[in-house]
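fyi for ur records
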Amino acid sequence: MDLIDAAEWLSGFAQVIAIFVIGAGVGQGVFHLWQLALAGRALSRFGAPVEPAQLWRRYAETAPPITLLVPAYNEEMTIVESIRSLLALQYPSFEVVVVNDGSKDRTLEVITQAFELGPVQRSYELVAPHARIRSLYGTSNQPRLIVVDKENGGKADALNAALNLSRAPVVCSMDADSLLEPDALLRAVRPFIEDPERVIAVGGTIRIVNGCEISSGRVIRVGAPKNFLALLQTVEYLRAFLMARLAWSEAGCLMIISGAFGLFRRDAVMEVGGYSLKTVGEDMELVVKLHRHFRREKKAYRVAFMAEPVCWTEAPEDLTVLGRQRARWHRGALETFVRHAGMMGNPRYGRIGTLGFGYILLVDVLGPFIEIAGYLLIPAFWLLGILQTDYLFAFLAISFGFGIVISVGALALEETVLRRFPDVETLMTLMAAAIAENFGYRQLNNLWRLVGTWQFISRQHSWGTMTRRGFRRA
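which gave:
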């Protein structure tokens, strides 16, 4: 092969790579536009959120009792505020089961002191596996609150302990660093009331609390985060929940309900043995496990998402903590994909096996490699003179153009229907963040996903440290 033939071969190879990467980008962009359209249709059908008083009159008498499952590990900074928020919820019948999962800080001490708790006893059946429970705490002053102190076993293990102790027909899984809006449960439980035979799980919207003002466990003023990383995550969460989760729900193919806020029919979760242990993606794994069980048993069921109920969570404000979180999330998605890989393409599981698992394969398993390859190879080929400028411009337009349109579109959906942000200045700040996140932040996320892939391949199981700053009080 002479130099001319080699140059032609390299040019042809570069064009094939460019066409593949650009085609993948177009396909993903079109798919996200489809999700945006589905989400817009769903929000227009639901209309503006119902006023709390009307919501209570409509659903309070028929709303089933709920047990909130709150695993806590080293959460002394935010746990008391979170529990106060939960006890102040506007819901007719509920209890809160907080599980101190062997915390190394003062989590248990600050809870027992703040709520004046003492040892109590409660019978339960060991259905879902978990580590040994050391003691239970409660008080007659707060009959809705039970605190479990147990040996450390991880988040899924702690959720199983709370699940065994729960007594309500519906359970709500949460993160200890989360704040629910007062009417969140009443809004989220609506599908269980309207379709009690089929609905087995409902997810709600998660929003970033950084930049908001908190009083007595409630968000009293919504604001944009001052920290740039938290600001980018605010837009990211809007896109993930108001667009992607809502669209998947509309398509009957919702594969994940966030562990920060999700409602489940207790008997359905018990049927599949509770949360699976030794996984960092317990939220996604449970939903996929439910899909698998009900499809295999040929039972009619439904997994839904509601945009109205809002749970507020604290976002990481430094790159190290955020990177650990994102790598862990990706590792959890890969764990679930591999554990249930037999569902992919299997007609027995319908659209879950085709559309749902196909999306995970293309976006979570292969996506980071394709995107990183595009960012590295296409500019390199162009600089070497073996790729035409048109391919470079097409790649840049697809990579950044679609991302900006999708992010701005998700923000527009929020402002059109829900209107949570208080002023034009906040909206303009978020609009700028929706553009900025495509230049550096999205690429960084792909690197973290590659780290998560390596952690999965090398069988690393550590959860990682999540540093809390605490809620901003009014």
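The mean pLDDT is 90. thats all i got for now
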